[in-house]
Amino acid sequence: MLLVVPLRILDMLAPFDSSHAATLVAELAAQRTLAPAKKVLQKAAAQARKSWLDNTRLCESALAAAATVALARGWPGKSPTPEPLDQWLAKAQPKADDELAALAAEVVEKLRTNSMLQDIAGDVGDRSFKPGCAELVKRLSKPAQAPRSAP
Fold it and tell me: What's the rounded Cα separation, in Å, for the pair 102 and 124?
């Protein structure tokens, strides 16, 4: 089976560059809470506790969900945030508590070490995937900052 994964998703500078990430962003905006991100992270964590994360769609969605949690805690990454997500975060100011951040960090660590994305990154020689995941875990481990103000 041929897997088509946008190579930019493997570059941790662009965790939102997939159709699955775009779907998550739309769900977040519609619900006005982090509930869709939490649901994706819980599903990924449950699968990771049983075996490796082999569902590419779930991996991509979980990566975007974790990056969103970091953003909601006030810790942006190096890549630009999609404008709809940036606007939603500023307006809704969702709360990402320590428990959700810890869940997101757990999932990202599994993505880094035991997932389809990690395998694909290795196959294509992407050396930024593992350090990018480590950087995201570091951001998720920091205390939450004050919410951003709406534009």
Answer: 29
Of 140, 138, 62, nearest in space to 98 by CA = 140
pLDDT in tens, 16-71: 878 888 899 889 988 889 999 999 999 999 999 888 888 888 998 999 999 999 99
Give the residue among 130, 134, 45 at the shortest CA–CA distance from 37: 45
Burial class from Cβ neighbours inside 10 Å (0-12, 13-18, 19+) for residue 104 reads buried
Average pLDDT, the chain: 85
| 70 contacts 104 by C-beta, under 8 angstroms | yes
Q: What is the torsional sign of CA 69, 74, 75, 78?
A: positive
Cβ atoms of residues 28 and 68 within 8 Å: yes
